[in-house]
Design goal:
It is built from 2 helices and 8 strands. It has 123 residues and is α/β, with parallel strands linked by helices. The protein has a single domain, classed as 2,3-Dihydroxybiphenyl 1,2-Dioxygenase, domain 1. Helix 1 runs antiparallel to helix 2.
């Protein structure tokens, strides 16, 4: 159903470097680059994630209530992705931990303020 998700980005170079490292932890690489507007990453297994300069030329802003959830495969990967995002200048939105049931997640914002969660379902 979902092919890819894009997040607004005001500095493609900085945003690209941020996601190269964060998504690289999950085996993702740049799958598509469209000039200075768009970068999409893929790990070859399902939907892609991208950063994009808005088509209308206006500044990228954060959608209130929007969030991208990254299924990362293990609790250890949740910790790694969250720590890498924070180390690269991302902002904490909730440290990794149990959130009820079998859901373990760590929430952060990227360099443009977009909210993401790295999560794992299960032990």
């Amino acid at each position: 159903m979902i092919g890819y998700v894009t997040l607004g980005c005001n500095d493609r170079v900085k945003g690209g470097a941020f996601y190269d490292e964060v998504l690289g932890l999950l085996g993702a690489k740049r799958a598509m680059v469209d000039g200075d507007r768009l970068i999409l990453w893929s790990n070859g297994q399902g939907p892609m994630l991208g950063v994009i300069k808005p088509h209308d030329g206006n500044k990228a802003t954060v959608g209130n209530g929007n969030m991208v959830a990254l299924a990362v495969g293990s609790r250890a990967n949740v910790d790694k992705v969250y720590a890498k995002a924070i180390a690269l200048g991302g902002k904490d939105e909730g440290a990794p931990g149990d959130r009820g049931g079998n859901f373990y997640g760590g929430y952060f914002r990227d360099l443009d303020g977009n909210k993401l969660v790295a999560f794992h379902m299960g032990a």
